[in-house]
Amino acid sequence: MSFRPSRIILSMCCTIALVEAADETVYRPWKDAQGRVIRAAFVSATDESVTLRMADGKVHQLPLGRLCAEDKAFVKSLSGAPAPATAQGAEPAVTAPALNRIPVEKRTWPENVVVPTKSIEIQVVEENPAARKCVYRSEGFEFTSQAKLAGSVMKEVARTFEATKSLVSSLPWGVVCRPPEGFERYQAELYETRKDYIAAGGPENSGGVYMSGDKIFRVPFPSIGLKLLGKTYAKDDNYDGGTLIHEITHQVMDAYLTFLPVWVIEGTAEYTEMLPYNAGKFRADAHQKGLRDHITEMQKRGYALEIGNLEEHLTMNRATWAGIANTTNRKMGELYFRSVLAVYFFCHLDGDKKARASSNSWTPSMATPNPCALFSRIPASSTWTAAASATRRTSRLRT
Amino acid sequence: MDGGRFSYPTNFPPPDMKAETAPFKHLEILLEGRSYSQIAQEMTAAYKDIGVKISVN
């Protein structure tokens, strides 16, 4: 599915690396591990997947593992970047992966984003239930659980985390997901009970919290759909993981949070949360359905479909936001709702306006590149420690 | 430097990272010279086109 880059693309990047590389790779043959060949153009790549545009304009995301060795190396060469730079006396530095972003006008909106199977292969690092410490790893996350979890259950837990990371990487926002400085993986702590969670610092009115101070996402078992069956925990497949997706979005965008207005931080997390999701697959192309469902749900809960004073909302500083949000859950809900409506507008409705005419907005013929992207000049990583070191917590209220 | 790394000069000026201003430094990219009231009107119209009646001013 092609994408008309609109103003908010949140590219949060400047120039860089893959720009020229992408130009040179238009419509080349790609071979999979079985020797089958397709002709396609390179669009983007993450650690786990590559996105290609076919001759008919359709865009497909493929697990890197499906490519032949030569094409894997080719993708890797496109993703190559300078070594990290280090500032003297003031860490950290601009990081290499942060530079591997595709220019705004070349980005495409994905159809479906599916978490690669490889990403949710679980590695048991440590299991010590007596000490209430069991450590598991998926490709991009390390989970420290208070209780032992079966591999199949842990895989289901990791699926939502990895899928959200894949989604944020795949959306044309220009976000490069990489663990915070000093970590090989994103960190998550899973608490058996809400009481344990709150004792560990979780806000009482939250279902999970990402604390950007220590870079750990804390969440109690009930919030990830884990319930005790007999003596073992099982995953409730019908559990709505919306809150989880919201908070994971914050976690994988951690490097950008300092540079973003709160309405963008919360609006983008609400956006990913409202996209239709099931069993490791986000339907990114069904964003309008997601929006409509979200509006319906919010109206059922009594929220007005309004943003109010736009300037006031878009320029709201963190102190003002916190002052309002901490008043009542209802006030916080209003801020979140207004934010996702603004983010959706800048993502899908602003720009050349052609997208308004049809529900099938993102056809190639409508893909009028608009290089003007929100935060396109914002550094991709927390380059300067001073501001980034301030602890900030984001939490989604269980309203 | 070794390993392909380099260092910034110690007097390298950091970007404007004041918590109050940094997040809004590039908001103009979104606004593109439009006033907030103009964007509010465009927002109302755009949402109307997809069948959503939204109030924004």
Describe the structure.
The complex is a heterodimer of chains A (399) and B (57). By secondary structure, chain A is α+β, with helices and mostly antiparallel strands. Chain A has one domain (81-397). Chain A is 31% helix and 21% strand. Chain A contains twelve helices and 18 strands. Chain A has helices at residues 18-23, 69-79, 151-170, 194-199, 242-252, 254-257, 262-274, 287-300, 310-314, 318-325, 329-349, 385-388, and strands at 28-31, 37-45, 49-54, 59-63, 86-87, 112-114, 123-128, 133-137, 141-145, 186-191, 206-211, 216-220, 226-229, 232-235, 277-278, 281-283, 306-308, 393-397. Chain A has a seven-stranded mixed beta sheet with strand order 7-8-9-10-12-11-18. Mean pLDDT of chain A is 75; it is low at 1-25, 80-99 and 353-395. By secondary structure, chain B is mostly helical. Chain B has a domain at 32-57. Helix content of chain B is 33%, strand content 7%. Chain B is built from two helices and two strands, in the order E-H-H-E. The longest helix of chain B is centred in the last third of the chain and has 14 residues, at 36-49. Chain B starts with 6 loop residues before the first strand and ends with a strand. Chains A and B meet through strand 5, helix 8, strand 17, helix 9 and helix 11 of A and strand 1, helix 1, helix 2 and strand 2 of B. Strand 5 (86-87) of chain A pairs parallel with strand 1 of chain B, so a sheet runs across the interface.
